[in-house]
Specification:
Length: about 200
C-alpha cells in the first residue's frame, strides 16, 4: 500500500541541515513501515506523524535533531533508553543516524505508540485544577489598609486572585516586590484585574 506523504514534510527535510536529512528520512521511513496508516502534518513548525492522535514528532536544529513520542504510556515502553538529557524528545541530541535506536527497536516503539493511540487511553494526563493560593503576609497587610482593594480582591474569581498572588510572590528582588504590591493595591482599588490591559472593554 502506498503511504501518504505530506509535501510540507518533504520541504522541511529539504531545508534541514545536511547532517539532519538522512536522520529525518530514516525516521520517516520507519514510521511508515511500522504504521502504514500514518498521516503527516506540520505542527508548531515541526513534522508530526499522526495515527488516532499524535504518534511522534521529529525536529531538526542547527546542530542536532530530536525524536519524541507523544503518548504518556511510551515512558514505560522506552524505559531508561528513552530519557536521554540534552534536548527535547526522548533520545537526546541526535547528530547522526547511529544515535537513533536500531531499526527493529524503533519500529517496535512506533507500533507500541500506535497501539496506545488506538486504545483510547488519553495521550496526556488530565490537568489538575489549580488550587487557591492564600495571599502572602505583605499583600494581606496591604489589603487590610485599603478596604476597597480588599473588597475587589475578595470578589474576584480564584483565577484573578491567583494572578495577583503569583505576580507578587514571583518577584526576585524586594524592591520589585514592593513596587508590585503598590501597583496591585492601586489597581484593585479601582477594580482592575492583574491583566486588565489585555482585556476587552
Amino acid at each position: 500500500m502506498k503511504t501518504k506523504r505530506n509535501p510540507r514534510v518533504d520541504a522541511y527535510i529539504a531545508k534541514a541541515a545536511e547532517f539532519a536529512r538522512p536522520i529525518l528520512r530514516k525516521v520517516r521511513e520507519l514510521v511508515h513501515e511500522a504504521c502504514p496508516e500514518v498521516e503527516e502534518e506540520i505542527k508548531w513548525s515541526f513534522p508530526f506523524f499522526v495515527h488516532h492522535g499524535i504518534l511522534c514528532s521529529v525536529a531538526a536544529f542547527k546542530a542536532h535533531c530530536t525524536l519524541g513520542f507523544w503518548h504518556q504510556g511510551m515512558k514505560r515502553v522506552l524505559g531508561a533508553g528513552g530519557d536521554k538529557p540534552g534536548a527535547m524528545g526522548h533520545f537526546g541530541r541526535i547528530t547522526r543516524r547511529e544515535d537513533l535506536p536500531d531499526d527493529a527497536t524503533l519500529r517496535r516503539y512506533i507500533r507500541e505508540a500506535a497501539k496506545l493511540n488506538e486504545s483510547g487511553v488519553p495521550a496526556r494526563p488530565a490537568k489538575m485544577p489549580k488550587k487557591e493560593l492564600p495571599p502572602p503576609k505583605d499583600l494581606a497587610a496591604a489589603l487590610k489598609k485599603h478596604p476597597q482593594a480588599a473588597k475587589t480582591f475578595a470578589e474576584f474569581s480564584m483565577t484573578h486572585r491567583r494572578e495577583y498572588v503569583e505576580w507578587i510572590t514571583e518577584a526576585k528582588q524586594e524592591e520589585t516586590r514592593q513596587k508590585r504590591l503598590r501597583t496591585a493595591v492601586e489597581w484593585l482599588t479601582v477594580g482592575k484585574s492583574r491583566h486588565w490591559k489585555y482585556q476587552r472593554s
